[in-house]
Amino acid sequence: MVEPATATQTAAPVMPQLKDELDIVIPTIRNLDFLEMWRPFFQPYHLIIVQDGDPSKTIKVPPGFDYELYNRNDINKILGPKASCISFKDSACRCFGYMVSKKKYIFTIDDDCFVAKDPSGKAVNALEQHIKNILSPSTPFFFNTLYDPFRDGADFVRGYPFSLREGVPTAVSHGLWLNIPDYDAPTQLVKPLERNNRFVDAVLTIPKGTLFPMCGMNLAFDRDLIGPAMYFGLMGDGQPIGRYDDMWAGWCIKVICDHLGLGVKTGLPYIYHSKASNPFVNLRKEYKGIFWQEEIIPFFQQVVLPKDCTTVQKCYIELAKQVKEKLSKVDPYFDKLADAMVTWIKAWDELNPPTAGSSVPNGKAA
Amino acid sequence: MRTPSCLLPLTLDSAVLNLSNITDLSPLPDHILIELFLRTLRAGKLTERVLKLFIATGKDEVFSLIQELNIQVTVNPVLPTRTLNSDLTSFMNAWRPIFSRFHLIIVKDLDLKEEIKIPEGFNLDVYEKPDIDRLVGTSTSIIFSGYACRYFGYLVSRKKYIISVDDDCLPAKDNKGFLVDAVSQHITNLTTPATPFFFNTLYDPFTEGADFVRGYPFSLRSGVTCVLSCGLWHNLADYDAPTQALKPEERNSRYVDAVLTVPARTLMPISGINIAFNRDVVGPALLPCLRLAAEGKFRWETMEDIWSGMCVKVICDHLRLGVKTGLPYVWRNDRGDAIASLRKEWEGVKMMEEVVPFFQSLRLPQEATTAEDCVVEVANAVKEKLGSKDPVFARTAKAMLDWVKLWKSVGGCSSSPGA
């Protein structure tokens, strides 16, 4: 039986790493009480709160946090007509936070995620682990059987080519969840009582050419390396699908990371996921996705990005073009989505103009 | 107040728990024998060895029970092991609770001169140089010496699953302090599907307490047959000599409680220290063919398993079969001197730089539908693309073709086509 950590005060690091280079993005419609538990770990950092749902509601932020808060009215004001690409009434709206951030790194977490305990009972500082993951290289070209070779107490195993031991920059760190696992609605319905109690003490790089289901509950990434590809799609109000926002982003970023020679890690850190959403509501949201993913996955598995796509934006625009060409026949939704992907990039570039003298490419094409 | 138990049921329960130490059941009175049989059955401990013990008593009641209950014997793993030193007593005694249920195949390294010492109480076959010469003849280029002697065991086994553990390894402890039954874990890995076409972030979805996560396509959830299970090592991890020499005190104490499928088209260094496989399907693909010029008696001085592993993975990817990695752990004793191994001429490390790109770009033709066919294709590609780079590759390619011939003649019926 896992439980969340309670006494987190003593566990805070003396010197919070990347204090001025990392923003924490939190989507919410209810309240931010969960921040109390995270206070020792999060307080040094700047928060970007994206308020979904009714903008007239006031979200109470616990005192002592440095934050900026955006509701739907703010999003509409800032993006104008381009606001159409940001989902309404869905946590997918969080990607607006990625866009407006001025920092190099983003950590995003759901408001029903608490601090987990490791098997020794110690509180897990998820943010610290994500930072470790992101600041150390990934190894996507050859699998290391002892998992992340850059962790303390591990290394590359016999037979691992030395030329591949430098690794590549890590663009994404995907964390996991104890207690309520991230299951889809059918699985939730069949196993309503299943809890994830297994603490797997590993971080590993997801190999090149392999896709995975990326969950947005506990995620960190390097905005400079992959930010523009972290669009969470059109979900929620007025859309035929929900609960596929992070999945869509995950497939896009993986294809682009593989193309640009960047790494994606998964595994630690764990957070404690406390709320199980209603499986019947989830089923209604996911229903189309369950069928569509059968077409979407082969599409992403076969995507080839041309060599001249040397920046994330170029890769993403190319991807949008291919989505329109190949997935529109699955459903007209994908036509809209492809357009929204282009709108997103336009909005991103407007809000994040390249600084004078900086070079744009961020990674060479594979 | 609890009713105190009788002595007899307590004794019978104790006997069921200690079956691994019992070698003869004939002194037992009939009625006790039958009761023991039924309890053993209920406890799920009626293995092939134990069944033979009951049958050996010659009692009619036992036979009629077996017939009545329609008892089938499940396939049991076989254990080839090379002898690093001639005294296997401590190794086998340490593994006794786990190994004693199974048939063991012990293959003596051709270079070992002393008589090997094996403790009592195991169901096993031992093969030494004369046996190897007799069965294999001298016309083959395959030399069953050093770590490669175990492949002879793979060749002569007739069981479906094979588990192979280096004899400097002992049972490990899990994160709760319990001894790990490595055999049982390997069998679980091999008898549950693998999922190589899409990564599951909660690792093996067929483990108790886990499942496929949101976003995992339903059409991929039945998985494919897992034919290779790669375990890990506590204490002395399988590092190469430079790494271990650089970190002489480093020992692996992390218990990562996961089994995961290695994705399709992803290559990895498959260590031969602790592996298990489905002999029926991929037997021929595990091959003793790459022999370094200065190959030695420590794992730091060999690459035979790494080469074999690359072949198996490419073949599994082609045949749409699965490879798992992770649990079980074994405890690997400290042995050898990394720096001494470094000083030897050590082509293995340099070789990987050629080998990896070769395997990454290797594509096998559609017509290759069995492991043997695939090995032949790989051998031909090795000769064509790597043969000119180093004579060791040309020799390896020839050895691979010899191995397939050997497998067809000595290995029994050909392997079943990939799933």
TrEMBL record, chain A:
Claim: Repressor is one of the keywords in the record: no
Positions of glycan attachment: 158
Domain of life: Eukaryota
Catalyzed reactions per annotation: UDP-beta-L-arabinofuranose = UDP-beta-L-arabinopyranose
Site (Required for activity): 158, 165
E.C. no: 5.4.99.30
Coiled-coil portions: none
UniProt KW keywords: Cell wall biogenesis/degradation, Glycoprotein, Golgi apparatus, Isomerase
Name of the protein this chain belongs to: UDP-arabinopyranose mutase
UniProtKB/TrEMBL annotation, chain B:
InterPro entries in alphabetical order: RGP_fam (IPR037595)
Location within or outside the cell: Golgi apparatus
Keyword Cell wall biogenesis/degradation: yes
Key words of the record: Cell wall biogenesis/degradation, Golgi apparatus
GO molecular function, one term: UDP-arabinopyranose mutase activity
Any GO BP: cell wall organization
Cellular component per GO, a single term: cytosol
UniProt-listed Pfam families: RGP (PF03214)
Domain of life: Eukaryota
Keyword Cell wall biogenesis/degradation attached: yes
Family: Belongs to the RGP family.
Protein name, per record: UDP-arabinopyranose mutase 2
